[in-house]
Input
Amino acid sequence: MGRLWGGIIAVAGITLWYYGGTRGETALVNLGIGTIILGLVLATMPSRGYVDRKTLPLTCTNLCGFLENLRRELNLKEKPLVIPPYENLPEGGIFIPESENPIPRPGKFSRGRVLITGTPEESGLLLSPPPGWGIVEYALENVGELGGTGVGYASSVVSSVLSGLGIGSGEAFEGESGEVEVFVSPLCDGPFYADPIVSAMLLGVAMGRDEIMGVESAERVRGHWKIVLKPLGGIEKWL
Output
């Protein structure tokens, strides 16, 4: 059944993409691309054996609470950096800094390392793999590479996986100045960086830009997180 609906949705996406392209309507082209991606994701998913979304918070609430307690105990800030995958961190990561003006040191990051020490600007807590890595990994396995593909494409892929799995949704909008606004429905109450759905969307944006992204602001708006990300440059800039 998943393949049938996935095929139907993909065909509808191709129609929208073609029609928008012939008429020069960018909105229809983008809608078509997103629909194609959703169809491809649905086509790869089994249709049985899924847990209702209402029960999923039971699996992550304690983790969200633990990470928030850990942040407070270490006196860390609430505006983390989102690190795209690179050689030292194949799964990427979320870095919760000690300073209001952090300086990322990718050379100090590595798989399995949790506490990063140095100057206050360099120190903090590294979450790698981030809570939402499993969602991003699923997208990579079923759709392909996300690194450097652009914010629109990468965020659409992650959002399509969330929708296909029935666990959430998200959108990302890139401004003229390079800042990215992310709107995403969380799975659990708690800090956004600890939520698997929210962190998956943030990581998808960082991968699409292929840059470290700093959180400028984060607020709850009608049951969603609105998060503003600022690009800080690629990994090589900070090595």
